[in-house]
Amino acid sequence: MYLFLATFWLVLGILVQVFWDSIATFSHFSADRTVMAVIFFVLFSYNFFRWRMQRALRKANEVDAQELPPRPRVVHREYDPTFDFSKPDDEKKDPK
Predict the structure, then answer these.
(1) What is the C-alpha radius of gyration for the chain, rounded to an integer number of angstroms?
(2) CA distance 15 to 1
(3) Phi first, then psi: what are they for 69, rounded to 5°?
(4) Residue 20: how many CA atoms within 13 Å on its side-chain side?
(5) DSSP summary character for residue 83
(6) What is the pLDDT of residues 19-64, one digit of tens each?
(7) Which SS3 state, helix, strand or coil, does residue 88 take?
(8) Residue 2: CB partners within 8 Å, gap ≥ 6?
(9) Distance of CA 88 to CAs 78, 93, 94, Å?
(10) Which among 26, 35, 49 has a CA at the least distance from the CA of 13?
């Protein structure tokens, strides 16, 4: 949609510049060709910028939506009392 609007304002701006002499005679207000060019360029730039940002956002969302890499597997190790810090030292030394 934004690309269509940007193209529309660009084409309309070019047509106004080409046929300015014919258009200026029917105008109810005096405007310079440069002022009209700036207005159409601003409208074109705004829509083109919005189109580019929408496209970049869509691409970023596609990358984020891709499948996540597999998680590393949990390795179960045997119980080693030397690394158990939840018990006092006396209980570790005297296994029953």
Answers:
(1) 35
(2) 21
(3) -65, 150
(4) 12
(5) G
(6) 888 877 777 777 788 888 999 999 999 999 999 999 999 888 887 7
(7) coil
(8) 47, 48, 50, 51, 54
(9) 20, 9, 11
(10) 35
Q: Cα–Cα distance between 79 and 95 in angstroms, integer?
A: 13
Report pTM.
0.59
Contact 43, 8 (CB under 8 A): no
Three-state DSSP class for residue 42: helix
Using the CB atoms, write b or e for 39-61: b if 16+ within 10 Å.
ebeebbeebbeebeeeeeeeeee
Amino acid at position 49, single letter = F
